[in-house]
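With this grant's support, the team has encoded backbone shapes as discrete tokens. A representative record is reproduced below.
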Amino acid sequence: MTDPLTIVFMPESAYGPTNNCIGIGKILEQRGHRIVFAAEASWKGQLEPLGFEEDLVDLAPPAEGDQDAGQFWTDFITETAPEFRKPTIEQLDTFIRPVWASLIDGAKYCEPQLREILARAEPDVIVEDNVSGFPALLTNGAPWVRIMSCNPLEMKDPDLPPTFSGYPTEDRSGWDEFRSEYDRTHRELWSGFNEWMLEQGAPPLPDLEFIHESEHLNLFIYPDAADYLRSKALAPTWHRLESSVRDTEEPWSVPDPLRHGDGSLVYLSLGSLGSADVDLMRRLVGVLSRTRHRYIVSKGPRADEFELADNMWGEARVPQTSIIPEVDLVITHGGNNTVTESLHFGKPMVVLPLFWDQYDNAERMQELGYGARLATYDFSDDELIGAIDDLLADEAFRSDLDVLGERIRDQEGTRVAADLIEELGREQHSIQL
């Protein structure tokens, strides 16, 4: 092969974006390229065993002692969980804005570290899977790639519902009010961040956006079958990944106590952040214990604070992409990672959204008939049990999802991403020569 490239990945400190970068990075590593992860410091020791270099950043002053991977956001979500009970328009001021403020604080804190990391690495390509920008990534001189591993509404369109709203595409009532409230609650924060970006030598941010669009390459992860019809096409630098499913998870088989039994096999995961809401997890365990089905449960970072029922098996961390192919249905918070992985394997979903783009994914899955959206804190026992049974009973629907999953898998999203990143690096080498 030609000379290997050095590719720096900087994912957001959550399992979804980091796992997405791991899947793409592994393919590039297998092709002989040098892969450096400038991940958040709590990921120490998680990435080197996969063949990557770790040159990690702190997003805040380091805490005493070791932290679990993604602990930064787990703590934040645990503290703000009561906000998830509010309508999405009310969350704009009490949750969404504080999240942006925390992200901005992290970007400012790690900027000197990030510049040093990039100076050490001397990257040919920089890949960012984040929702907020980092000036160092734009001013380094190497071409940078933006991965948008959130619902596609992150790229705004006047004929589509507002980002984070969870509003339906066919009913525009409330759209203008939501957008006005977003402007009211975020304008000052955005202005300050944009001013700081300019001070660091970065280009100006698009209006009310907290991250730039790359002039080189932008990737978004969402199957075409689930995407929205836009009034204005995205720029030619944008490329769709039908899915981005890592193959770095360990092999897994159904535990003996659940291998045989009545009903279907169901996977329950509220993500690394949503599962930190222990009261919600306890309620779900209680309701699901009274059904005839069997459950695999991703218990999350507070796993030792609640017990599972006899018809369940779970651990704090489970190999999700090895589990989903084995189950019949997924109960999820609606994170983009789990939603696109469920479609990748052709599985129906019950979606219980909590925050961010999860409401948009929940609404989209319900609109398209790929799943059922329930009110996360207000569903009745019968609603949840009925949604599960209805989705499992529709054999024609499940057969259609099997076909969709096969079509998505055939597109090999991680390989497509690796090809595009590699091509960008080769082009940069050619220019330098």
Remarks:
- The mean pLDDT is 91.
